[in-house]
């Protein structure tokens, strides 16, 4: 089974690439004349499920060709702004092949609506055939400090991640046997911080994920470029994959971060292979 985790950064072009991700490599040559961007033909062939972050509603021509979880998309609403005063996007899970069965968990009520999407994916072939696997796509939102904190900034994000971890914990039953893959944009960097205090707070996110049975398994490398940078000059990693102990030794992750395979978002895609 193959999955892609991808913060699409509100790009419609990213949505339009999804139907082709489920095409096996043996069939890719048949569609090469139909695609213009080389990144659509990179090693993400035969993908079954895509874990999306920061997605607005897909274009109609895409929505008719893929299956996406039924959660609503946020419309422009002054009562639901993010920290920058714009409408919020949401996380989503899309099935792009017929090699898996997907049950979308639309009864998960995230502490921050739109920051988490979950499903149970059952492979129909391979080693895990017939075995349900929980998958989670997540991305935090920025928050403002409390007025009494003495700080006026609106760039707190680890607080939102910790709420997401609490929500994920509700899906974990038997600690030794549950099967789960959680992937997305943490917006905090592993092993880094602007000083010792923030480095410790960032590390607490990864430590807490490990404490609930979801250690970080990769990928280590640049996954995001800031305004003014390009895929070739990207220096930051904000996107990570976590997996249960029962599965982590059977999963390979790879950041598709070469410039020619990066794609239209400011985040590259993370390929997750389960074997």
Note down, in words, how this protein is organized.
With 275 residues, this protein is of the alpha+beta class. The chain has one domain: Deoxyribonuclease I, Chain A (4-Layer Sandwich), CATH 3.60.10.10. The chain contains 4 helices and 12 strands, in the order E-H-E-H-E-E-E-E-E-H-E-H-E-E-E-E. Helix 3 links the parallel strand 7 and strand 8. Helix 3 runs parallel beside helix 4.
Descriptive tags:
six-stranded mixed β-sheet; globular; alpha+beta; Deoxyribonuclease I, Chain A; single chain; 275 residues
Average pLDDT score: 84
Integer tally of domains: 1
Count of individual helical segments: 4
Q: Which strand order do you get reading across the main beta sheet?
A: 3-4-2-1-12-11
Rounded to an integer in angstroms, the radius of gyration calculated over CA atoms is 18 Å
State the CATH class.
Alpha Beta
As for the CATH topology, it is Deoxyribonuclease I, Chain A
Question: Could you give a short description of this structure?
Answer:
The chain is an alpha+beta fold.
What's the structural blueprint in terms of helices and strands?
Elements: E1 2-7, H1 12-21, E2 49-55, H2 60-63, E3 67-68, E4 90-95, E5 100-104, E6 116-123, E7 133-138, H3 158-169, E8 180-185, H4 196-211, E9 216-218, E10 239-243, E11 251-256, E12 269-274
Parallel strand pairs: 1-2, 7-8
Antiparallel strand pairs: 1-12, 2-4, 3-4, 5-6, 6-7, 8-10, 9-10, 11-12
Helix pairs in contact: 3-4
